Amino acid sequence: MKIALGADHAGFPLKERVKQWLLEQRVQVDDKGTFSNESVDYPDFARLVGEAVAAKQTDRGILVCGSGIGMSIAANKVPGVRAANPHTVFEAQMSREHNDANVLTLGARVLTEDEAHGILDMWLRTKFAGGRHQRRVDKISQIERAEKVPST
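^ thats the sequence. predicted structure below, dont judge the formating
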């Protein structure tokens, strides 16, 4: 598995710990930055990671900022990205199993390192369930392409 990884200044310290954990799990990491605590704009990194995922240069993406919210909003503007900002292991599982989330956003100021690790571990291990959920993910893609979504 190959992961695109990015963060802003608030998420930088946690991004570095996530990167180390991923490398220990033998996951390839494409670190898109930032590379310090100096102030930067989170949408720049959300776009870099989102575009890598959408172009299938990486299997998934992980973004870290203060709350995870800004990264999630920005990444979800990239067509093909389904970014989720879970705060529990259960939400991480559902984001993969039901929504096929391909980008995980983490809030460095709202999660402990242990919580972030648990969320990350579950998110990486959980497979998309497909079935009835595929129809719903397909409808999300139709919205992105501004197609009429048939009602059911």
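The two ends are 36 Å apart (CA to CA).
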